Amino acid sequence: MEKQPILRIQGYTKVYGEGKKAADNVTLTVESGDIYGFIGHNGAGKSTTIRAVVGVLDFTEGEIFIDGHSVKKEPMECKQVTAYIPDNPDLYENLTGIQYLNFIADVFRIDEKKRESNIKEYADKFEITEALGNLISSYSHGMKQKLAIISALIHEPKLMVLDEPFVGLDPKAAFILKQIMHEKCEKGMAVFFSTHVLDVAEKLCNKVAIIKQGKIIDSGAMGDVVGNQSLEEVFLEVQDEES
Amino acid sequence: MKNRSWILLKNLLLSTSQLNQYRHANDKKKRGRIIGNMIAYVLMFLFLLLYGVGACIGYGKLGQIDIVPVTCALTIALIAFVLTLFKTNGYLFRFKEYDMLMSLPFEAKTVAGCKFLYMYVKSMGWYVGLSLSMLIGYGIYAKPKLIVYPLWILLSLFLPVIPMLLASLLGFLITKISAGFRKTNIVQMVLIFAVTLSLFFVRFLVEDIVKKDKLDDILMSAKDTMNNLADVYPPAAWFSDAVRDFSVSGILLLVGITVVCFEVLFLLVGRSYREINSKLESHAVQKSFRMDAQKKRSVVSAIAFKEFKRMTGSTTYMTNACFGQVLVVIMGVAAFFVDLDKVIGIVMKNAPITKEMLYPSITLIVYFMVGMVATTAITPSLEGKNYWIIQSLPIDKKTLYKGKMLFNLYLTIPFMLFATLCICISAKAPVLTTVLSLLLGVVLCLFSTCFGCVCGIKHIKPEWENEIEVIKQSAAVAIYLLPNMFAGMALIVISVFLGTKIDQNLIIGAMILLVSALAALAYGKVMRLCRAEGTRLG
Fold first, then answer.
1. Are residues B396 and B524 located together in one domain of the fold?
2. What is the pTM (predicted TM-score) of this model?
3. Buried (b) or exposed (e) across B333-366, using 16+ Cβ within 10 A?
4. Is the ipTM of this structure higher than 0.90?
């Protein structure tokens, strides 16, 4: 399958009101089929970048394109093909799981048959079908995370953007998520996600970017970035070098 | 295919629907609480209906039933404007699901517009209730044609929209300006207070300029006042023309201008919506902290301090909790610059009531402003998602609520004493009366704090979507506020009446005893509620 750029970040810069740069000239490209890991210390600029990609935060300079559309100028076209899961998803606590999924399906205009089969497929995989009739407020953190993942998958996005997706997931759910990522990316979807779990990133991702104090200090194919070392070793090395 | 605005609005309403929670909650306790809240709302609604009908009967008896449509429109407009101004920040900006909604294929103006419509629909019942009750009163005395009834109800739906849009525009501008500052909350609060206070002055200026009358004349003539105010606020006149004279232009203007204002405002808001929220939500993390000697506090003081920080971290909380305090400070200072005898003459319409007879009501008037928000600081509901912190700490409920109540006392007593003292000095009240008035102020604060705490515990709701639900719209607030307000008004009337017959100090003394007993009862109730669920938080 020919690879197409799904996400292009070009010179993205975010300056806070106080003049401090949260992201400084970030440039990277995620192509169809890529599972792209985005790693860095707390406060390095991962979440700020991710929130700008999904159209939640404004940015100062640069451009972000999703499937060829500018996030700034054509946000609706970008959002239509993107799914976002924040690190701590704030779902509507007083809706039931199924009410929330139907809301997302309505927003993405998914027809009844397709939504039914997609919801069933992923809810069964993550083993929360029986809990879908309960209020989200009664869910555990992991269940909420699973629900957020299902809501991201049911509209079959071209790009999935995830902020720390494995936090709170039980080992089986984490395994299923990784499996789904692989399956979807084989069919042309792209995944861009941040994580602190370097082992997972190393095994799962074909590409990686390391961000420090808002700047990308290393990026590219996983093999090129890590060489003979582990991702953990490379990460710690570059963090120490720069400081 | 369903419209996305409708999908979002429907979902926002469903996500806070008590009925939906009742249908799907498995917890019996929670279901019971929901029913309790619903009963409280129904009672409040009936109370509102009675108030509206009662007011109209008053107008009917005075032969001024014609002004009811204008009065209805102006009352709804005023309430809608003030309440929306305080709520805009929490509803349109900084809501917790902002990230989720903005990452979905919604345009910014759709999100902002739906949030406004949600705010409108949530409060619409109260406005329609008020309107309906006035329609009943109007129907009894004016005996209008049958068509007036559906027309009145239909147009009532539009009455709160324009003032809500105006308040939202102001709120939007305030948020846009304050978003550029590091201390956003403080700037926002100062601007909201400044706008609200200046509106008070504008109101007096308008009355002065438009009517070229004296204040006492205006008070004597409600009809002129209402008609002149309707000239200043045309939607009230449109409504009145529509229901009294079936004016097609009135109907078209009210509906048309409402729709146009909505579209224009949200086109404007939508353009800078993401920019404002980005500024509000993203700030550089300061890395300048240096570890030095830390201050030790008692557990109760630590909880009170935590509550203080919680307050300064939320514009909605701060404006709600501090607005009365700002007003009483202004009132206290103003007392030195106005001729109290003249004010009494105007308000009492030159009835044979002396300043001395009004001494017992000084503290009650101050309490009216200070004591009406005693549910905010004390309610456990505001802990929201952070409730676990308190739950997991080795703090018993009594200590927790003592801390919260202590903070509320810090927040009310100094202002109560300041304003009462200023007015007493200005009114040249004797020393004994002043001391007793101050004492009454303290016990009133104690009572409001304890009663507010009872309401907060009994109607706890930590699983809110927006903190405004707790601060402004919860059952706890309604149950605290309305009886307190009407009891306060009744006490003022009774104390003025008794003041004409009995020594003022005796009246104040009796009130001190009565309020102290109520405060003790309320405090006892708080302690019993704490014991009821064990020594640890449940």
1. yes
2. 0.80
3. eebeeeeeeeebebeeeeeebeeebbbbbbbbbb
4. no
